[in-house]
Design a protein that fits this description.
Length: 264
């Protein structure tokens, strides 16, 4: 197909359409939502928590959390666990937490049977190493944000995060992948400053959430990975942090964790 980048080992495309077009022909797919979902996953699973992605931020999220015997992350600062990564730094091992996210969680739940990895600036090299144990055809998806009317807003931080991961992968690169790598290489020496100057960073500063930008911008701090199992995410093997959506079936061996209905 025209947009599936199948001529190349390493592919990169934005958002939902990126997942839809690239996942079916890829050995693994990496979701990059730097300022929220992916960094939350990295921090929580590195401490031994289990993360359940959920698409909607409405009353159905609480219903789903209760169905999997999990807590629910909120959007309110200072109200327990939230979509702010810094709220999860002290999360105890074994905590089960639903993260409702219209960006990262949504993309994770769209990837079908393709192993899906949550990547961010903090764990980019470890994510790349793990992804290539699954095969040579790797798709990296910058999640982006949303404009007020709901359309995709390409987000600088996710583009750079995608480039950080792609820069550690071996194989032929699509033009889109090359462009993301160039963006990362241009920004990496002054990452925190650039994060504060981009649109998403300025939005966080205006809302008084400077710490989220600082936490998310600590590139390569954690050699961790975590993997999805039955739509839930946990840290596997020592110190590597990734999420694998195809590992849905693994969860059945852990205890039949229910998949959220698509119409909730």
């Amino acid at each position: 197909m025209m947009f599936d980048q199948t001529e190349f080992d390493l592919r990169c495309e934005w958002g939902e359409q990126g997942v839809i077009n690239l996942a079916p022909t890829s050995d693994a797919i990496v979701i990059v939502d730097v300022l929220s979902f992916s960094t939350c996953v990295e921090i929580a699973t590195s401490r031994g928590a289990v993360i359940f992605p959920y698409r909607f931020q409405d009353g159905s999220a609480l219903t789903y959390a209760q169905s999997v015997n999990a807590l629910l992350a909120t959007h309110q600062r200072g109200a327990g666990y939230s979509l702010s990564p810094s709220s999860l730094i002290q999360i105890p091992a074994g905590t089960r937490l639903v993260i409702p996210s219209p960006n990262g969680s949504t993309l994770t739940l769209l990837s079908g049977q393709t192993p899906t990895i949550a990547g961010c600036l903090r764990n980019g090299e470890a994510v790349a190493r793990f992804a290539q144990t699954l095969g040579n055809r790797i798709a990296v998806i910058p999640a982006g944000e949303r404009w007020r009317e709901g359309s995709l807003r390409p987000a600088w931080e996710d583009w750079v995060g995608a480039g950080a991961i792609l820069s550690h992968l071996q194989g032929s690169r699509s033009p889109e992948a090359e462009a993301a790598i160039v963006a990362f290489q241009h920004a990496k020496e002054n990452l925190q400053t650039r994060l504060s100057q981009c649109g998403s960073g300025k939005e966080l500063i205006a809302r008084g959430i400077r710490s989220r930008r600082e936490t998310c911008g600590n590139a390569q701090q954690q050699p961790m990975r975590s993997r999805f199992a039955q739509r839930h995410l946990r840290c596997i093997r020592k110190r590597l942090n990734v999420s694998s959506h195809n590992q849905m079936k693994i969860a059945a061996n852990f205890g039949n964790i229910p998949i959220p209905p698509s119409n909730l």
